[in-house]
Amino acid sequence: MSQVFERVAFLGIGLIGSSLARAIKRAGLAKQIVTFDGNADHAAQAKALGVVEETARNAAEAVAGADLVVFAVPIGAYADLAAEIGPHLAPGAIVSDVGSVKMAVIRDLGPHIPEGVYLVPAHPIAGTEKSGPESGFADLFEGRWAIVTPPPGTDEAAVQRIVDLWRAVGSEVEIMEPGHHDRVLAITSHLPHLIAYTIVGTATDLEGTLQQEVIKFSASGFRDFTRIAASDPTMWRDVFLNNREAVLDVLQRFTEDLTALQRAIRWGEGEQLFDLFTRTRAIRRSIIDAKQA
Amino acid sequence: MSQVFERVAFLGIGLIGSSLARAIKRAGLAKQIVTFDGNADHAAQAKALGVVEETARNAAEAVAGADLVVFAVPIGAYADLAAEIGPHLAPGAIVSDVGSVKMAVIRDLGPHIPEGVYLVPAHPIAGTEKSGPESGFADLFEGRWAIVTPPPGTDEAAVQRIVDLWRAVGSEVEIMEPGHHDRVLAITSHLPHLIAYTIVGTATDLEGTLQQEVIKFSASGFRDFTRIAASDPTMWRDVFLNNREAVLDVLQRFTEDLTALQRAIRWGEGEQLFDLFTRTRAIRRSIIDAKQA
Q1: Residues of A with CB below 8 A from B248's CB?
Q2: I want to staple B280 with a disulfide (CB 3.0 to 4.6 A). Which of A200, B5, B57, B101 is the partner?
Q3: CB atoms within 10 A of CB A237
C-alpha cells in the first residue's frame, strides 16, 4: 500500500502531468495537489477540471511545503525551474519527473537538490499524440511500464515511495540505470519518432496536388506515422537535444541498414529483401507474446 | 446496381483475395466463385470456409468460362500465371487484380490479354498485417478507397463494371493513371513499409538483452512500426522490386531530409527541429479532417 503524500506539486500540468494528477487523486495518494505551469491557461484549466486543488503563482510557491515535486514540463525547462525551486524545497521531499530522457534530467536537476531532499527520476511509457491538461485521463498509466532511474546511492525509501506511487496508479515498474534507459529509449521511442517526423516532413514538401493525394490515401501505411509525428513539438525537440549521443548512435545504425536496403532494391536483390521482411515478422510475434501489442 | 458475374476466378486466395471473395458473395455479385492457389492448403481452406464454391487444379481450369478473373497473388507471380491463362480466357472477360503496384501489372499482364478481353487493374487501399485465407473478412473494404487504373483506351463498360464491383463491396473508388498511382503509393505506402522494415531490422540486430528490452518497452513508438513490418514478406519484396524507380526517388528525398535532421541534432539546432515538428502536426490534422484517421 502506498503511503499518502501531504502535498504534491506538479511543475507543468499538460497531458502527462494532468493524467498523473488525476490518477493520484483517484487512488487517494495525496491530500492536496497543486500546480504551477508557465502556461497560465493550462494551470487554470487544470483547476477548473478539478485536476488540482490549487494553482501557485510561481514554482517556488508551488513546491513550498510539498513532500513530492513532479517535473512534468519539456526537459529543456528543467534547469531554470530547478534553480528557482531549489532553495524552497522542504526537507525530506522527493523530487521526481516524467521526462523521456534521464541522464540529462539528473544533469539538470541534481546540482539544485539540497541535502536531505531526494531525486528519483521516472519515465512512464505512456502517452498519446495529444497535448494539454484537457487531454489527460486517469487510466493512462494502467498496465503500462514506468521506468524509475535513481542516480547511484539514492535513498532506498525514497525510491520505494516512487515505485509504490507508479504501482498504485496501475503501472508495472522497472528500475533501470539512467544511461541504459536513454539507450533503450533511443531505439524504442526516439528513433521511431525521428523517422516518423522525417517521413511526414518529406510528404509536406510535396507539391500541393500530390500532398492532397497523400492525405487521401494515407491509410496505406503513412497514416500510422502521422499519429506519431503529431506529438508535442517542444517536448520532442528537447528529447533530441538531450539524448543526442544515443540518438545519433542508433540513427547511424539505421542509416546503414537503410542504405543496404536501398542498394538491394536498386540491384533487384529480392532474396535480401525477403530475408529481412521475414526476420521483422518474428519481432512482431515477440511483442504480441510479451503482451505489448 | 452492379451487374452479376457468372463465374469469378480468383488466382490466389490469401488475405485480400479471400476478403474480396467473401464480400462478393455477401453482396450477391457472382453466381459462382472459383480459385486456384499455388498453395493447395490455402485453396482447400478457402473452400472449407465456404469462401469459394470450387477449387481448380490449375489456373487455366480456373479461368475457363470466367467472366471475371482477379489476380490476388504477389506481383512477382503475375507474368507466369498470365502466360498460362492467356489462351484460356473467355471472350468478353475482364481481368483485374488487387496488387499494390500498377505499371508493372500492366507490363506483366498486358501482353497475354487477348483481343476482346479487358484488362482493368485495381488496388484496394485496405489490408492487415495478417496473411492467408482464414485472415480475410467481408468488411475489409468498407469505407476504404479502391483505386482503379485502366490502361489508356480501355473499354469504358469494362472499367465501369470494376468500379461498380468495388462500390458494391463498400469502397469509394478513384480512377487514376497507373504511373501516377505508383508515385502516390510509393510515398503513402511503400516508403513507410520500407522504413518500418528497416527500423525493426535494426532492432533485431541488437544484442540479446537489449533486444528483449526493446520488445518490453516497445509501446513507446517502436510497436507501431512492428505492426507494419509484420506484413507479408513475399508481397512486399515484389512491391519493391516492381516499383523501383518511384521508391528510390522518394527514398532519396527522405534520406536527404533525415540527414538534415541528423545534422540539426548534432549541432543542437533546436529551432529547425521545432519548426519541422510543428509542420508535421498540421498534416495529422488534415488526415483527421479528411476522415482517414
Answers
A1: 262, 265-266
A2: A200
A3: 25
**Do A226 and A238 contact (CB within 8 A), yes or no?**
no
Instruction: Report the distance separating Cα A210 and Cα A217, nearest Å.
Output: 11
| B54-55 and B118-119 strand pairing | unpaired
Give the CATH fold of the B180-289 domain: 6-phosphogluconate dehydrogenase C-terminal fold (1.10.3660)
| C-alpha closest to that of B261 among A110, A99, A229, A13 | A229
Q: Which cell is A17 given?
A: 502531468
CB contact under 8 A, B210 and A287: no
Return the amino acid letter for A37: D
For residues A160-182, b (16+ Cβ closer than 10 Å) or e, as one string? ebbbebbbbbbbebbebebebbb
Q: What string of pLDDT tens digits covers the 293 residues of chain B?
A: 568 999 999 999 999 999 999 999 999 999 999 999 999 999 999 999 999 999 999 999 999 999 999 999 999 999 999 999 999 999 999 999 999 999 999 999 999 999 999 999 999 999 888 899 999 999 999 999 999 999 999 999 999 999 999 999 999 999 999 999 999 999 999 999 999 999 999 988 888 888 889 989 988 889 889 988 998 999 999 999 999 999 999 999 999 999 999 999 999 999 999 999 999 998 888 888 887 76
pLDDT band of A103, cuts 50, 70, 90? very high
Comparing CA positions, the residue from A72, A86, A146 lying closest to residue A116 is: A86
Taking the Cβ of residue B223 and every Cβ of chain A, the question of whether any pair is shorter than 8 Å is answered with yes
**A219 touches B at CB < 8 Å:** yes
Please give the pLDDT value at position A171.
Answer: 98
Residue closest to A73 by CA, chosen among A228, A244, A237, A243? A237
Query: Measured between alpha carbons, how far is B270 from B291 in angstroms, rounded to an integer?
Result: 32
Give me the phi and psi of A123, to 5 degrees please.
-145, 105
For the beta carbon of residue B159, count every other beta carbon within 10 angstroms. 18
For A178-236, the pLDDT digits (tens) are 999 999 999 999 999 999 999 999 988 888 888 889 989 988 889 889 988 998 999 99
3-class secondary-structure state, position B242: helix
Question: Which site among B180, B191, B226, B263 would you substitute to test the A interface, given the most A Cβ atoms closer than 10 Å to its Cβ?
Answer: B226
For residues A225 and B241, is the Cβ–Cβ distance under 8 A? Answer: no
- Protein fold of B5-176: Rossmann fold (3.40.50)
Residues of B in contact with A274 (CB under 8 A): 233-234, 237
In this structure, how many other beta carbons lie within 10 angstroms of the beta carbon of residue B57? Answer: 10
B211: left (phi over 0), alpha (psi -120 to 50) or beta: alpha
**Beta-carbon pairs below 8 A across chains A and B:** 299
- Write down the domain spans for chain A: 5-176, 180-289
Instruction: State which residue of chain A sits closest to B123, comparing Cα positions.
Output: A220
Task: List Cα–Cα distances, A212 to B25, B60, B102, in angstroms.
Answer: 34, 42, 20
Residue in chain A lying closest to B234 (CA)? A274
Q: Smallest Cα–Cα separation from A199: which of B125, B277, B126?
A: B277
H helices present in chain A, as ranges: 15-26, 40-48, 59-63, 78-85, 103-109, 156-168, 178-185, 191-204, 208-216, 222-228, 233-242, 244-266, 270-289
Q: What angle do CA B85, B89, B92 make, to 5 degrees?
A: 155
